[in-house]
Predict the structure.
Amino acid sequence: MNKTVKYIFLDVDGTLFSPKLGDIPESAKEALALARAAGHKIFLCTGRSLAEVSRYLNADVDGFILGAGSMIYADGKRIYDDPIPSRDVTRIKKTIRRHNLGYCLEGAAGGYCDEKGYEALLWYFSGGVEDRQTRIEKCMENGTYPEKFGSEENDSIYKICAFGPEWEPDYETLSKDLESPYVLTKVHEDTEEHFCIGEITNSRIDKATGVNKVLEHYNAEAFQAYGFGDSANDIPMLKACGHGIAMGNGAAVIKEIADYVTTDILEHGLWNGFVHYGLIEGERR
């Protein structure tokens, strides 16, 4: 084991990718390149599925933790795979519909949305662009399509997101109606835009599963790991890492448990976090 190598785990949405910008901030791209050049290993640790990170597959990273820990790649090899059984996907879809929420089934080949879910993601990925055709193209860039293009019948589903305007009461009652082992986690709430995302996953698998399996793969230890996140589903990742960093734009619940809170994603959050921990050389911005 090379103890000088650091293992950096990055959430995507709200940490690496900014919905407001519709892209990755330039300072974050610079930070990743410098960290790799210094010999550190970088993993995207996201709730997104394989298809939804297609634009990042050629990124200068060492692997991916996908579906909030249910699919893991290291050095180009899949080292873990645990999708949601199709019968459970069908049952969860029906439960979401009963609560008047939209959904996206996040699979290996694509993210498949009902009408409400697709409209929600057209807005989310838009970066503020109003033109509908451009919004559709941005959704396609992120591997997301209407459900007619696929479902649990012809793809493995690793995570399900539910979309709605307000967290209460619909999400609260949805959480109570989910059958074990599935749980609902709030991953995004914008009260001004009336936009919420709830993530449904297997309670036995989370981002800590991914971190631990990656460290085991490299015979590394937790003190070598640095986790960066912004929402509640990142808490297991931060706790599994020796160093847990919350983004300045992150939710209060993750800032409370973080070892360090960096600046907002649009205020060079990743760059400043990397500099703070000596992962790269440079000045705070």
